């Protein structure tokens, strides 16, 4: 469990005058579950988006499995396929079935035959408890079910790391638990994960390490027992006090 899959060094990103990431250093090793907490606007999504190549950093480096994302020789398309991402909104096709949504990246990006794609998709839907809803259209299922389908769709690509950006923030409160349970099961299966969340109890349960971001820097990081119950930094204490 000590081989780094992701190495972020002195990562910087601005939008115009606004400096959003001010030198982020973060390493994630294979099998590790790292949660990122912090106030809205602290740069958490921008950090994930730089990892997933949705934003181009202004400085510093991101290495995925030893390959520098900013190196022109790096095959970004191939790298992106190895990184799964789940957003707050589910980004599923509303007019397609759950199964079709999961098969789509396999038949298009992977050019898999339909029968094979269906087999993979059904397997992943089973894993998130959505197999019985495979033929439902996305607009017929609940937000919690849609998010579980979105997780299955990402898993179909057999990613080496899963990035979650507030996966339960858009859900009705009674749907949050079913999605967190799926993510917890994934963590237990050994999946490497970087999770932005405001669910502190969940982060405490699931994480090997918790990172507290504040105004574009990592203010504090450590095991959940320390960050949540014995934080070193006054800013961490102040942030966490809002959740009690
Ligand atoms: P968080 O996810 O922690 O809430 P974000 O990374 O989304 O924070 O945003 C950090 C800051 O960057 C916010 O002030 C946000 O308004 C700004 N920001 C994010 N994306 C853009 C963008 N594409 N253009 C301009 N400003 C942005
Ligand atoms: Mg965000």
* Helix segment tally: 9
Helix content class: 25-40%
List the bound ligands: adenosine-5'-diphosphate, magnesium ion
What's the main sheet like?
A: 6 strands, mixed
Whole-number average pLDDT?
96
CA(first)-CA(last) distance: 33 Å
Task: Give the strand content.
Answer: 25-35%
InterPro entries: AAA+_ATPase (IPR003593), ABC_ATPase_HisP-typ (IPR030679), ABC_transporter-like_ATP-bd (IPR003439), ABC_transporter-like_CS (IPR017871), MetN_ABC_transporter-like (IPR050086), P-loop_NTPase (IPR027417)
Domain ABC transporter: 6-240
Organism: Actinomyces glycerinitolerans
Catalytic activity: a polar amino acid(out) + ATP + H2O = a polar amino acid(in) + ADP + phosphate + H(+)
Q: What is the gist of this entry?
A:
The protein has 244 residues and is α/β, with parallel strands linked by helices.
